[in-house]
Amino acid sequence: MELSSTARRYLEIVQGLAPELEELSDRVEAEVHDIAAREDPVSQRIYELVIGNDLHRLTLPREWGGQGLSTADYFPVLEEVAGINGALRMVVHGANGMWRLVDQYGTDAQKQHWLPRMAEGDTVTFGLTEPDNGTGRDISTSAVRDGDTWIINGRKWLISFATSAKMIHLLAATGNDERGRTLTCFLLPQGTPGVTAEPLPPTMGCRGASHEILTLEDVRLPQDAVLGEVDAGLDLGLRGFLDVSRLGIAGSALGIARRSLALATEFARQRVTFGRPIATRQAVRLALAEMASDTYALQAAVRDACARFDRGESIEGEAAMCKLLGIEIVGRVTDRALRLHGGIGYTEAHRIERLYRDARALWFEEGTAEIQKLVVGSAVASGRLTL
Ligand SMILES: Cc1cc2nc3c(=O)[nH]c(=O)nc-3n(C[C@H](O)[C@H](O)[C@H](O)COP(=O)(O)OP(=O)(O)OC[C@H]3O[C@@H](n4cnc5c(N)ncnc54)[C@H](O)[C@@H]3O)c2cc1C
Hints:
By secondary structure, the chain is an alpha+beta fold. It contains 11 helices and 10 strands.
């Protein structure tokens, strides 16, 4: 696939940074259980690498200070990043997707305020998931109008970079319709009184990224903190950001699968048992063939969905299918790659151990496999999706 010269340049930047990022990843792994290190978050260093190399504004439109890359151009860079470091991938993925909400639904004042700041490196995040109930319409965080302001109460968790982000797109229930609760999206600036954050325990992979629990007690926001229409927050989140973000998770799965295949192939060429490299054994070649075929199929699906998105088509079904395929394929490929490394692959001596753990986050980000199936099933059953 032909990439633009800008995309090629960023791909080379990431490839050039790989040794530094690998070294940083090792330090993050070592520090993650160290409370003192967590108070001086490693994610800050990862974040500085992202900003310092301009990787946070690849897709942001040029009029707001970004590079304006299409998804077809941006994804190869994201994939490369995903194959190096999971936390870095989370920062890049978030920064290159999150601007879409304000860009599409913001007032002129909201755009003028937030988009140039995002170009400068202010990160923003998305607050939907809750500890006490399901997501989507099931959330219980509520916002009640009080004259010109809204009063918000509730709890969120698993919110990535909630304490370092300059703003959270916060989803709160504001009413009811025939389908259940209706939600509204609020732009919640960092430091707003009434919001407290506590860290979650260290995650299995993607170390260096932080995820917090947020408690909102009588948080007051002005009317102009509402993004888009009142009671339209769920559709705004789904169509404004989640579809392309789900595709980004599939692209991340592709990057991890490709790197895992490369690592397994390299290892199999070098590891000698019974006098021959294991790569010469038929059983090992069958495994490599299955990993390569899976990765190729995922790549084709992701490239097709990117092209559709760049043409302005709805990718509701395609994004969910790609995410579903992505987690199933990266699961199979990282598992196979780990097994091909033998027992030593289960230790931190080999990169595959970290990639295996990093990949597991993809099961949850932007919704589980079951939720993707519900989206695809409903699109197929209603005739919105035909192949
Ligand atoms: C690394 C990481 C980063 C994240 N970052 C963010 C973030 O920045 N912002 C944010 O808002 N969230 C974030 N999340 C949360 C993530 O989006 C959710 O974990 C995910 O959507 C699943 O929701 P849940 O955890 O509430 O699971 P639950 O809804 O409790 O689901 C538990 C299980 O039940 C199944 N299930 C639940 N309901 C149904 C149903 N109706 N039908 C069939 N099966 C069902 C699920 O598929 C799952 O297998 C993050 C999660 C992780 C792991």
